[in-house]
Amino acid sequence: MSSTTNNNNNNSKEEYDDAFTKAASFAFAQVFPAILNAAIDMNLFDIISKAESSLGMSASEIASKIPKQHSEMGSRLERMLPSLVARSLLTCSIRTINEDGDTERVYAVSPVGKYYTSTHHDEQGGSWIVMSTITYQGCRHIWKDTKDAILDANNHNHFQKVYGKMAFEYMETDTELGNLFGQAMSQAGSLGLKQVLNAYKGFEGVSTLVDVGGGYGQTLKQILFQYPSIKAINFDLPHVVKNAPPHPGIEHIGGDMFKTVPKADAILLKHVCHNWGDEECVKFLRNCYEALPPHGKVIVLDALLPEIPKSTSFKDTQAVDLDFLMFLVNGGKERTEKQFEKLCKTSGFSRFQVACNDSSNVVAVMEFYK
């Protein structure tokens, strides 16, 4: 009996300690985004990635590469770099610096941190640098009074209430934010697509493909690398496609998906549906339906919202966080599998299927068949 009692007490203590630690981490949750974006603004990941030593660089060595110099720079960096280590963005080791045995920390960019280097965008076709910046800084005002998005019955679109216009309309007039958004979609939009293309074979046999909301055409470039015979059309708003660079096999067309969509064998909607409510989605999905031949398909790439989120699943955490972000910024939403199927059938399509839903990738692939 005493052994059972001790085990129960130990379990209770572990549960208490775990609950306390998690609760405390949420209380300080605003600190790390500030550190990460300061590191991005100071170009720290690029600086550290260019270290001459394979072990990395000390804080003082990093400080020497920052244009704005002062005597306390190194010691101040030491106050933020360990936080990046704790989140696996940097690695850290100890280096002995003299015969007396004095040591210093040495920092290197981890595989996670490489996603925040400019070379990762150039070499791997994607980066999280600009997406992090636009979420933290570009949309900084929407984080104020977030509760009003819930409590205010007249607040039907939080971004519109804060900025005076819907998000996409506002970015047409605020060129700085619009360009930042375009860069974010270009740099981050193709991340994870390599995994999708390795698992999903639904582009085989497609002769013409329209990417609706394709931005600067980065997604199509990756698809054409694997399927070079496809004739591709990058379709987006005129002010977006005018900045899209030319690429062999891709035709850039400006237009409005709520009015018409270019005809093709297959139509791609990557991170488009989550920007809109159901009524708006049905409008452009019906235009997609009209643009397809018999038995054509719409390929939807979006997060699948879990029915019950698992606290141990990063994929579930990202999906529910994205859902709230879409709610604040666009009045849109992520959707469950059942909600996507309903959207499919309401728009007139005959068949719905989840073609690919890899547990390691937050993006699922769904097909709507005409």
Question: Layout of SSEs?
Answer:
Layout: H1 2-27, H2 31-41, H3 44-49, H4 59-63, H5 73-77, H6 81-86, E1 90-96, E2 103-109, H7 118-124, H8 129-138, H9 148-151, H10 158-163, H11 167-173, H12 175-188, H13 193-199, E3 208-212, H14 218-226, E4 231-236, H15 238-241, E5 250-254, E6 266-270, H16 278-291, E7 297-303, H17 314-329, H18 337-346, E8 351-356, E9 363-369
Parallel strand pairs: 3-4, 3-6, 4-5, 6-7
Antiparallel strand pairs: 1-2, 7-9, 8-9
Domain O-methyltransferase C-terminal: 143-350
Pfam families: Dimerisation, Methyltransf_2
Organism: Arachis duranensis
**Whole-number tally of structural domains:** 2
Strand arrangement, major sheet: 5-4-3-6-7-9-8
CATH topology category name of the largest domain: Rossmann fold
Number of helices: 18
Main structural class: alpha/beta
What is the CATH superfamily of the largest domain? Vaccinia Virus protein VP39
Distance between the termini: 66 Å
The top level CATH class name of the largest domain = Alpha Beta
Domain O-methyltransferase C-terminal: 143-350
GO biological process, one term: methylation
GO molecular function: O-methyltransferase activity; protein dimerization activity; S-adenosylmethionine-dependent methyltransferase activity
Domain O-methyltransferase dimerisation: 26-118
